[in-house]
Amino acid sequence: MAKKTGFFTKFFIKLFLLQIISLGLLILIKYHNQDLSVMSFKWQYTGNMINLITCGLVFLSLLFLRIQKSSVFFAYYKVFMRLLIIGVIGISLGKIFIMFPVPFPTMYLFEQPARRLFVGAFFLTFQITQLMIFLYCAFLISGRTSKILFRAFVYCGFILAIGLGAVLIHQSLYRNNEEKYSEDKYEVGLVFGAAVWPQNKPSPVLVARLQKVIELYQNKTIQKIQLTGANAPGEQTEAKVARKYLDSYALPDSIFLPLEEKSTSTSEQIRFVKNDLLEKHKYTKVALISDNYHAPRIDEVAKFYNLTIPTFAAEIKLSGNHDIMYKLREGFALLMFWLFGV
User: Fold this and answer.
1) C-beta atoms surrounding 187 within 10 Å
2) What pLDDT is attached to residue 150?
3) Which stretches in the chain have pLDDT values below 50?
4) CA-based Rg of the chain, rounded to a whole angstrom?
5) Whole-angstrom Cα distance, residue 315 to residue 313?
6) In the CATH scheme, what is the code of domain 178-317?
7) How far is C-alpha 110 from the geometric centre of its chain's CA atoms?
8) Rounded to the nearest 5°, which phi and psi values hold at 145?
9) Is the whole model's pTM more than 0.85, yes or no?
10) Percent helix, strand, coil in the chain (nearest 5)?
11) What gap in Å lies between CA 333 and CA 335, rounded to an integer?
12) Is 138:301 a contact under the CB 8 Å cutoff?
């Protein structure tokens, strides 16, 4: 047990310094994940506000416990330190796996590569440890110390479920005001890649996005088409499959920009818009084309890059379990981007 020798003991200072360092490291990694300078940090962005509020609540709960129940604070000092260290290790390992890719089994879960889920689990460790510290403090302050570890785990899961539910509500209330932009003209319409099925067949989601871009071109809303997306092992790239599909509509070759076949995520495709289309090739009016499930996340990622770009969404209806799975996948992906920029 840590020994109390005054209010600002070395134990107290170590704990709070580590919490501040954890927040700083999180923000640094979050922006580095997107190849952005941390100097572009904006606290008003939804994800950044979540980070600040979460870390602030942990800071205040520890401080309140230190003031109200000093002996209890020092009795659980090592628990708090271990949780903070586990959180720092989690986001550090997640970042290492992003920076230094290592061979990983070719497996998919919820249409996501196992590697991405593995990295996400490391990052999520940080948020879990932050919630665990807050819950420990809440239980200790209220005097509910029986089965405290079990209670904290249960409540932590409950809070994460509420967070995911809030994201799903946000998505269901999302309106992209497409009609507001439908009369404008755009130099380029960028189509986000989507899954390719066996034998290089475009999935229904990809087909819906391509039908949308055909509609926009025929309505003269866009002048050129940019297709994006890499590939899963054994498949052609999403961009190449999309081009073959559009070729069956006898569209002129001149409207197609060179395929972008390296991106594997929404954020990488937004980064391509910023770095390549807007900055390198100096296009000034770009439209994004996806679907109604994906559009809310596109807008949030674009805001993180400080971009205001209209999104035209294909209205697709998935049946039963596919609808639920797609919504959950998009909700979880948005939550992970808000929290960690991944």
Assistant:
1) 15
2) 92
3) 1-3
4) 23
5) 6
6) 3.40.50.620
7) 16
8) -100, -5
9) yes
10) 60, 10, 30
11) 5
12) no
Q: What HEC string does 257-297 produce?
A: CCCECCCCCHHHHHHHHHHHHHHHCCCCCEEEEEECCCHHH
How high is the mean pLDDT of the chain?
Answer: 88
User: Which structure tokens are listed for 4?
Assistant: 């109390």
Q: How far apart are CA 59 and CA 49, in angstroms?
A: 15
For 6, 42, 258, the CA distances from 214, given in Å and listed in that order, are: 71, 37, 17
Q: How many CA within 13 A on the CB side of residue 336?
A: 23
Kindly report the number of other CB atoms within 10 A of residue 220's CB atom.
9
**What residue spans define the domains of the chain?**
10-173, 178-317
- What is the per-residue pLDDT for 171? 86
Tell me if 227 sits within 8 A of 256, measured CB to CB: yes
Helices (runs of H) and strands (runs of E) counted in the chain: 12, 8
Question: Angle CA(30)–CA(34)–CA(38) in degrees, nearest 5?
Answer: 55
Burial zone of 198 (CB within 10 Å; 0-12 exposed, 13-18 middle, 19+ buried): exposed
CA distance 297 to 335: 9
How is residue 14 written in tokens?
């170590």
Residue 48: how many CB atoms within 10 A of its CB? 19
Is the separation of the CB atoms in 269 and 309 below 8 Å?
Answer: no
For residue 129, the Cα-to-chain-centroid distance in whole angstroms is: 19
Left (φ > 0), alpha (ψ -120 to 50) or beta: where does 41 sit? Answer: beta
Name which of 75, 50, 67, 64 is nearest 131 in CA terms: 50
Report how far residue 123's alpha carbon sits from residue 86's, in angstroms, rounded to the nearest whole number: 11
